[in-house]
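FORM 7B: Structural annotation worksheet

SECTION A. Query
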Amino acid sequence: MSTTRKALKRKIAILLSLVLLCAVFMVPSYAGNHNDEIARLQQEADRIARENSARAAQIAELQGDIAREDSFIKEVNKQIEQIGAQVDAYIELIDAKQQAINGIIGDIEQKGREIYEAEHNITRKENEIERLDEENNRNIEVFGSTVAQMYMNSGGDAISLLTGSTSFYDILVRAEMIRTIGEKNNELMEDLLAKIEQQEEEIAELQKDIEDIQNERRIFEEQQRNFEAEKEKLEEERAVVTEEINKQYKTLRELTAGRDDIRFNVRNLEGQISDAAAELSEIDKRIAELEELNRRIEEELRYDHSQNPDRPSFSGQGFIWPLSDSYRMITCAFGCSASNPCGYCSYGWRGSSHTGVDVGNSGIGGASVFAMRSGTVTFAGWKGCCHTGYGVTVIIDHGDGVSTLYAHMQAGSLAVSANQFVEQGQVVGRVGSTGHSTGNHLHFEVRVNGTATNPMGYL
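SECTION B. Predicted structure
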């Protein structure tokens, strides 16, 4: 970028040197609106150079941002991997807890089945005890009836039963009967009591088994609740970690999108730099045209001086330069056309070659325009329509069919009027940009019998 600027400045310096050289010889030195154009080109080149320098700095900064983004993205990816490993560990732990819970649930279901069987056995035993109770009750009733019958028959007691005997043998028989009945009843009662006691012991054992199983089930249920709570806590922790992963992924997506935006901006800036380089290339081309034109004018200058080494400021035909000597920068020479381009002449509105000479130094706007020779003003006003044509114009008849024309002067700057006689060097108006004009400059012509001729042949 700095090389391009140096080359541009070097070319402009050469251009300025040529302009000064032409000014020394007091002849027109065509430079395509030299001072204004050179200053504009210089400003344009400096602007482009500054913008490109700023773009280059911005690209360097953005590339640094991309590098930082890439580094940060790597760290985010590592963090996501670590968090993912943590989530996997939570998942494995949750699965292990779930398996333990499933095992406990199986144990609880098994204990439930055992309790159901024990309760069923107790019910069966209770039914059996109830049947035995009924049987015992019947036996007791039989026993009671027997005793009552014996009592009634004996007068109410065993002694009466014995004293009612008719013989000693009868006494012995009755005594043995009483003893046998007592023994049978005792055996019956003892058997009933033993069976009842056994049934009660079995019921107590079953009740104890049920209590043990129920205690075990309560323990398993407590373990299940604990495991469920741990599992729920793990699920909550996994949800927190998963949310953190989602945040990290969101950050990663934002970083990736930001990096893509930065790279797009870099490509955009590189495109702007490329466009600016093309614009600088166009400026180089235009400066080359100016240099070539200066070369041609310098050759004309040398030839002109070789033919007229002693020519004064006034021509042999008595014409003078229509501006002060500080304004001699030709912006469009006589005869320039689209087929014979001369720098920055405008050909779009003109069907033929340039009929005069344009002078357009920097700061020329408002400069006095002088009559090139004495004569009578034949026209003073706007020539052409609207914003076309010559704009504010003065035409002076110098006799012998020779006339001069001064165009594009400032509106309201006319200092002469039609039919007025003017002296050579008298101010007729001021430089402007009326009519078809792209900037402040003076367009002047010399016409012979109405035909435009090269004004430089009269100066």
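SECTION C. Observations
The helical segments are 2-24, 34-154, 158-163, 168-307. Confidence is low (pLDDT under 50) at residues 16-36, 308-316.

SECTION D. Sign-off
Analyst initials: ____
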